[in-house]
Amino acid sequence: xxxxxLSGLGSKGPACFLLETxxxxxxxxxxxGPDDEAVPDLTDVGPVDAIxxxxxxxxxxxxxxxxxQLGRPPIYTTALTAEIAGAHRHGExxxxxxxxxxxxxxxxxxTGRAGHAPGGIWIRxxxxxxxxxxxxxxxxxxxxxxxxxxxxxxxxxxxxxxxYEDRLETGIAALLDLARKGPMLxxxxxxxxxxxxxxxLHEAGFPIGLCPAHTAMVQLLLAxxxxxxxxxxxxxxxxxxxxxxxxxxxxxxGVALAASANAESGLARTLITAWAGRAEIVFTGHRARxxxxxxxxxxxxxxxxxxxxxPLRSHLVGLLQAVRPEQAMLAFLPEPALSALxxxxxxxxxxxPPEDDxxxxxxxRLG
Length: 367
What we know:
By secondary structure, the protein is of the alpha/beta class. It has helices spanning 58-61, 79-85, 168-179, 193-203, 212-223, 230-242, 266-274, 292-298, 313-323, 337-344, and strands spanning 2-7, 16-21, 24-28, 50-52, 75-77, 93-95, 100-104, 107-113, 121-125, 131-133, 154-158, 184-187, 208-210, 244-245, 255-258, 280-283, 303-304, 327-331, 350-351, 363-365.
């Protein structure tokens, strides 16, 4: 078994890893961005037998249009992720369970919910002696739970927050305090934290406005068999019933949630201009380089309040204790933050660093 980091190790770059096992070549995610619209360099990868998607966020699926370079292989993912990502446009979809055993071209796999996004999963290849790929995961999800991680000898883990340890309650308290002071616009992705924020602020008594993308996502999750559990569906249904629909003529009122996350497109971009000086603009996730979110926050025209969707350092410690890997890659974190994180974590796993020379790629292998 051999795992090569094509992209995503040593940077907040697009997720893309190549697993070679049992005579199969399997691409783990094929993302785009989040910074500078970056895509993985696949020029020397050659044909692969399958693509596996962990979840439906662009930095994990956004470069699927490159699948033709790889022989247009079948795409393995959950049915909900496939629908949100529109993955059927790029290859045959072969569904994976949200939680359970399956196989990918005779390679045994185990999946579990990753708590980060609707339909998102972690996936282990090859049993206890194999590889666990967490995708993005979060132990603090309001709507999307995370299943216990299994043991594996190799690990590729989401480490996007590095040594950060402030719990989600910190962000919730800050948003509630700001919402009490007046209208608030949150540019957020519909397939993730946007709906979690809507649920909690609605339950706190604030009027909620949803853009068409968020409304459509709630409707999909309420109808889809891979959607949230019954209690969480009920919470979403109450938000949908109470929320006012947002459009380009909407006035500042209560808490408005609009795509897209960095305000580079969609209704969020329009409303930021229309509501300037009349509502607080608040970004809650990664502010991608070169986007409106980064510019507005840097100029003091918008605020940043983090809403946790990635693991804290303490969660990574728990992950290492549960999985007990021999080797691990901690992904989606640039240097020097990556070195600071690995220095702070307990052994005995050997942490694989990124290659200094971009012509070379970091590798983990067994056997």
